[in-house]
Structure formats: structure tokens, C-alpha cells
Amino acid sequence: MPTWLIVLIVVVAVAVLGAVIWLVTQEMQRKRLQQRFGPEYDRTVAEKDSPRAAQRELAERERRHKELDIRPLSASARERYAREWAQVQEKFVDQPSDAVAEADQLLNSLMAERGYPTEGYEQQLADLSVRHAKTLEHYRAAHTTQQKRDGASTEDLRDAMVRYRTVFEDLLTDGADEQHHDHHDRRNGHDHDRTERNETDRHDTDRHETSRPDADRHDADRHETERQASANPRTEWNGGR
Questions:
Q1: Among 104, 122, 194, 207, which is least packed by CB within 10 angstroms?
Q2: Is the pLDDT assigned to residue 83 strictly greater than 80?
Q3: pLDDT digit string (tens) for 95-144?
Q4: Model confidence over 34-50: pLDDT tens digits?
Q5: Which residues contact 34 (CB under 8 A, 6 or more apart)?
Q6: CA distance 161 to 89
Q7: Are 172 and 110 a contacting pair, CB within 8 Å?
Q8: End-to-end distance of the chain based on CA atoms, in angstroms?
Q9: pTM over 0.85
């Protein structure tokens, strides 16, 4: 077989292998993004010119999200926000339009305290989509109603409050389990170390208590042997006299 033909076969094989690897990588990326963004993936694909453009957009959202300082709320902050939300819900009975506006403001305050930028609605959607894609449609619908709340019906306002609450609870509790597990692990680790130290101390004490009678018996036996030797001189020595 000519050398040029061997080279050609190798080049074609490498190209085919590279193409297969690229296709597999793209498919894995697509599935990962679909799993993470859920309905937001399909929405972005519909808005962009191609699935590839949508995937680039979603990957860019992930990159930006990693640079944000997103943090869970403390237990006291969660309780405070829960109380404030209860007050907003009570206000809905008499002032539904104002209550929806306050719900939107409270949600924005919660986002800011979690570390999400709140300077623009579209950017909010992009940032929230990375970790809260499942409740993002609720936020869109509630925000749309809030924008036209003066002309919205009471039923529309009630629906907006329910949707705001869904997003609110998602943001309120997100990260709380991780924080609890970290605290639980640290506490258990501390208790484990303390238990190990106690076990070691008990082991040393038991060993000391066990060895002390043996030492006492050894000393007593030695003293008894010396006493008997002094009271009974050796026979060979007496015979020598």
C-alpha cells in the first residue's frame, strides 16, 4: 500500500474521530442544559436563531452566575421575610393592587439580600434562570400583572400574588438545607473529636489502673524474696564455715 494512501486513511480516521467526539460533546452539553434550565431551555431556543445560539446564551448565563456572590439567608433573615410576606398577604384583602406592588418590591429586596443584581428585569430573569428556572414563568406572569395592576381584575391580582409567593418561597428556602447540613456536619465533627478524646482518656486511665496492681504485686513479691533471703542464709555458705 502506498505511503500517501496510508497517510490519507489516517487523516480521514482522525477527522471522523474528531467529528464524533464533537457531536457527543454537543449532545452531552444539550442534555445538561436541558436538565438544568427545563422549560427555559425551550423558550431560549425559540427566541434564538438556532439551538447552538441558545446553548451559548445559557452557557453565558451560567458563567455570569458563577461570578455572583449568591448566599443563603440566615435563619433570622428567613423569619423576618416570612413575617413581612404575611403582612403583605393581609393587606391584599383590602388593597389588592397595592399588595401586589409590595409583593414585587419585597421579592426584589429578597433577591438583593441573596446576592442577585436587581438593576434590570431582563437581567433578573437571566440570573434567576440558572438556579430557579422552575419558578421563572411564575415570576414573568406575576410581573406582567403587576405592571398593569391598576387595570387588572381582583382575580388576576390574586393569581399574581400566588405566583409571587411561589417565587418568594423558592428564593427564601434555597440554600437553607445546605447551610443546615454544614452546621450539622461541623457540630457532629466536633462531638466526634470530643468523643474520641474521651475514649482515649478512659483507655489511658483503664490501662493505668490495670497496670498499677501488677506493679504493686511485683514489688511485694520482690520484698518478700529479699526478706526470705535475709532470714535464711544459703546452705552452701553455712557448709563452708
A1: 122
A2: yes
A3: 999 999 999 999 999 999 999 999 899 999 999 999 999 999 999 999 99
A4: 888 888 999 999 998 88
A5: 41
A6: 8
A7: yes
A8: 115
A9: no
